[in-house]
Every structure is written in C-alpha cells, then in structure tokens.
Design brief:
The chain folds into two domains: 156 residues, Rossmann fold (3-Layer(aba) Sandwich); 147 residues, Response regulator (Rossmann fold). It is globular. Strands 5-7-6-8-9 form a five-stranded mixed beta sheet, with helices on both faces. α2 crosses α3. The chain has 13 helices and nine strands. It is α/β, with parallel strands linked by helices and 306 residues long. The protein binds iron/sulfur cluster. Iron/sulfur cluster binds next to α3 and α12.
Length: 306
C-alpha cells in the first residue's frame, strides 16, 4: 500500500520518523517533492482565502499526492499537543477536516493523533486502520525506530547552520515549516550561508531556554511554536547576535501576537530586527533586496559600534 506523506508543516521535524515508521510497518511511504510553484497553486485553489500560507501549502502537497502520485492513502499528522501543557495552533486541529474536503472520494486518510491522551510515540497515536491490521508488537518496534530517527533529526537541526567565523551572527525566528521549506523561505538559510553569516535557529536554542518561564508576561504562552520563537529571540539577545530576522507566514494568527512581543523585547536590547512576511505572492527580488540591505546595515553597525 502506497501512503503519501505531505512534505509540509511538521514534516520538517518529524517527517523522516514517519517515513521510517510506515516502512517498518510494511507500507511504502511516498513523500511529495519539495514545495514548488505547483504545490502552492494547488493549495491556494483548494483552501479558503483566510487560511495561513503553510496550511495552504500542506493542502497543495495533499492534492499533489492524490492527483499526481495517485497514492492509496494520505498520511495526515493531527498534532494538537506534542509537549506537556502546550498546544500546536488550532489550524492543526482542523487539518483532517480540511484534507477530507480536497481528497478524491473514497481515498483514505491515516491520522497520527497527538493530544493530551495520546503521546507522540504511543501506539494510541497511530491510526486505528493500522492498529487493527498489525500486531501491537510490530507497531511498538516501528515506533521505537521512528523515535530514534526523530532524535537524529533533532540533533541534525541543532547543529550550527552556517559559518563559524567571527563575522556576523544572525538569529532567525520562524516556524519550522517556513524556515526549512526552501521555496517558502526563499532559501533564507542558503542565502545567509552564502553571505558567510553565522546563523542561529530556534532548533539550536538550548532546552533550558525553551523550558524557562518567559519573564514579563502576565500569563504563559501556550502555543508550542510561538513559545519556541519567543524563547529563541531571548536566547539570541543574550548571545548578543548582530541582528534577528523574523520570517512570518501571511495569515498566521499566533504569530501576529508573538511577533509583536518579540519586536518589543529585541528593541529593549537594541538588536536590529528584519521582519519578512511570506505569502504566495512574495517576490524573490524584493526579498533579496531587503535581506541584502539588512545585512549591510548590521555589518556597518558592527564595524562602527564594535
Ligand atoms: S501557527 Fe500560524 S502558520 Fe502555523 S498553522 Fe497556525 S496559523 Fe498557520
């Protein structure tokens, strides 16, 4: 059975683990190709206007798998809670319903449901269609392998992305599905590496920063991704980075709040911030010009202020 995995949303964290899980269960995983104009257009046509760009792109990958790859089923991560007392944004909760609306009639979905009761790597998280078909022991072994693959992926993401020289050090804040999707991010990481910039990403932020209470807030941030962005920004400030780039997805509700909090904190620390909004119409020329101008500005600032 060929099961399509959309290369979007939290695929950029867990995708390799999902692939190894499905393989170990005896299925054939088929991952959609990296995002390109085709997936964006398919997604934009399928999704409602007010949906954020990353979810539109996810829908584009689903349609690609169903219509071009003609897979037998589509794997849909229904991730509501991947860590204790924090939640992924509500759009993830509605993902299966949105996917159902664009799948050809009769094409099954296989869910991976993580919520308060179903831990990330528990047998209960696995879709009932797989649980009914395979022995529990086989599923457990596949999950343990998947967990190992996920931990290798985290190690890979936590390693320095970019130059180790004493030049510019720039912190990037973004959701993983914007940052690690080369098309959506306009290859921001590649551009920074090419400019010999040392880059910090949220995945490089030490765990103690991610878990620490964020000072100055009346109540805790309960979104996993927003909290990571906020914690990463505070960590970058403590590291004394030369500047921060915030890649934000058009239509993202949580980010409109977190982005404002981040901007205020960085301003208090006197750290320059470049905000880049991504939508389906973002042009490469404008993006490159703004990035270049920002790097020029922080380079000059560093050389004159030390
Ligand atoms: S956090 Fe923002 S970008 Fe991510 S799915 Fe939710 S609304 Fe979309």
């Amino acid at each position: 059975m060929r099961i399509g995995i959309p290369r979007a949303l939290l695929y950029h964290w867990y995708g390799k683990a999902w692939e190894s899980f499905l393989l170990a269960c005896g299925f054939t995983p088929v991952v959609s190709p990296p995002t390109g104009r085709r997936q964006v257009e398919l997604g934009v046509r399928a999704a409602q206007d007010e949906i954020c760009l990353p979810v539109k792109v996810f829908m584009g990958h689903v349609r690609y798998l169903a219509e071009v790859e003609k897979v037998d089923a589509v794997f849909v991560p229904h991730q509501i809670q991947v860590e204790k007392n924090r939640f992924i944004c509500p759009k993830f909760m509605g993902l299966p319903d949105m996917v159902r609306a664009v799948l050809p009639r009769g094409m099954p979905m296989l869910l991976w449901l993580n919520d308060r009761q179903r831990h990330l790597w528990s047998v209960q998280a696995v879709d009932g269609q797989i649980r009914r078909k395979l022995p529990k022991e086989k599923i457990r072994r596949a999950l343990s392998l998947a967990r190992q693959v996920a931990s290798e992926r985290w190690t890979e993401l936590a390693q320095a992305a970019g130059s180790q020289n004493q030049g510019l050090q720039i912190g990037v804040i973004a959701h993983p599905y914007c940052l690690y999707d080369g098309h959506l991010s306009m290859d921001l990481l590649g551009r920074l590496r090419a400019a010999d910039v040392q880059v910090l990403t949220p995945e490089m932020t030490p765990d103690r920063w991610l878990q620490a209470k964020i000072p100055g807030l009346n109540k805790p941030l309960f979104w996993t991704l927003g909290r990571r962005i906020m914690a990463a920004a505070l960590y970058y400030a403590e590291q004394g980075v030369d500047g921060v780039i915030h890649l934000a997805a058009f239509g993202c509700g949580p980010e409109s709040v977190v982005g404002e909090l981040v901007a205020r904190r960085l301003q208090e620390h006197g750290i320059p911030l470049l905000g880049l909004n991504l939508d389906e119409h973002t042009g490469e020329a404008g993006f490159a010009t703004r990035l270049e101008a920002f790097l020029d500005l922080v380079t000059r600032r560093k050389s004159c202020c030390g």
